[in-house]
Design brief:
The complex is a heterodimer. By secondary structure, chain A is α/β, with parallel strands linked by helices. Chain A has 11 helices and 18 strands. In chain A, helix 1 crosses helix 2, helix 3 crosses helix 11 and helix 5 crosses helix 6. Chain B is mostly beta strands. Chain B starts with 10 loop residues before the first strand and ends in an 8-residue tail after the last helix. Classes of the chains: A alpha/beta, B mainly beta.
Chain lengths: ~350, ~110
Amino acid sequence: MTHSTITESRVLDALRAVKDPDLHKDIVSLNFIRNMRIEGDVISFDVNLTTPACPVKERLREESRQAVLAAIPGVSDVRVNMTAEVRRPPAPETGRIKGVKNIIAVGSGKGGVGKSTVAANIAASLARSGARVGLLDADIYGPSIPILMRASGEPEMKDGTIEPVEAHGVKLMSMGYLSGEMPLIWRGPMAHKALQQSLLGVRWGELDYLIVDLPPGTGDVHLTLVQSVPVTGAVIVSTAQDLGLQISMKTLRMFQQTKVPILGIIENMSSYVCPHCGGKDEIFGHGGAVRAAQALGVPVLGEIPLDAAIRKHSDSGVPVVLAEPDSSSARAFSEVTGKLAQQVSIQAFRSIPLTIIEE
Amino acid sequence: MVTIPEERVTPAEIRKKSGEGMVIHWRDGHASTYGARHLRGRCPCAQCVSEATGQRLVSEEHIGPEIAIEAARTVGNYALHFSFTDGHTTGIYTFEYLRRICPCEDCA
């Protein structure tokens, strides 16, 4: 057999054997294959995934390589270049933030479960993978993102729009900036206006993901968010403790009632590893979030340990995924982020456009 | 909480028939045709339904036949909002609610 029998259509046929495990379709039908070149007996192409944070990136690379090698004799090398382009879910044009592809809400049933720390680490982790990320601190009761991300300076107003602050490659806006040192003592309508300004009045530019760190519980800010913009999905942060979980379920049901897909539950402070003896203690119990997620049929995105390193780096304003990327806590966050990005991609493929056709 | 099958309350297509009404095709295959007066008379807002007693304060018989929908828009992922020609704009009609008030013979 000669090299001339290697054709683009034969390579594509071979690649149809490779399936994306989340979208349940082959990578050719999903239009992932780009820039194919056949030079002699060497084939090269891009596999354009739906997120740079894809946890199965290496597996798909190897499967693609093997599929071509196995199906077409005479091929000496297959060079697979992994790229990514975050897809935008079909959503109504009205109310959507221009240039922002996905809006992810991070909520919790009660305060103190580490929601903001989780949001900051997810944002930093997505940015580290190469995605364009924004982080909106909508927690009017305790805006903490500027500290967690060590954001210096304040956003500037230019031509009537707010220029976000940038830290660790993430564009930041905090409701805390709207009040300076003063506490935010707001009635509903004020919170509503402030969130709308923070969402729609900020020059976010082109973003793959906008993470919105919500106040704990269910309230005005949540309602404004789900009414103002099409939210791609929501993440619930909880501790394993049953009390915490039961309250989290209310937040979860609020999102369900307003048709915001639940991307998953993250169990935070899942276990404590003693720095002195190495013993593991499950202070808040264990697996509560996993059981609840199974009962409700929503994905578990992962478990984050109660680790002094996370607290230490949070206090100094560098998320642990950046400060100690090889630590077990950082790896736990990266894994959660990968699963979250997968769920967002699934949502982008599953949802149908919701627009009003005018006759 | 009673769970309603998702496809019953998820629209596949939403059409606005100029000012006179709306047609929603649901994912389960059902189609609902709403006249403007039908919708206005079933507004779920706090001005039209008493928050304290749940009693309806404004119903279809209070609405003139000339009522029309000036504008319709989606609310997040879960509801529709209408501006009526009588100036009323405060109702948020969730898809669950819209399916419940489908005026067709099978549903009524």
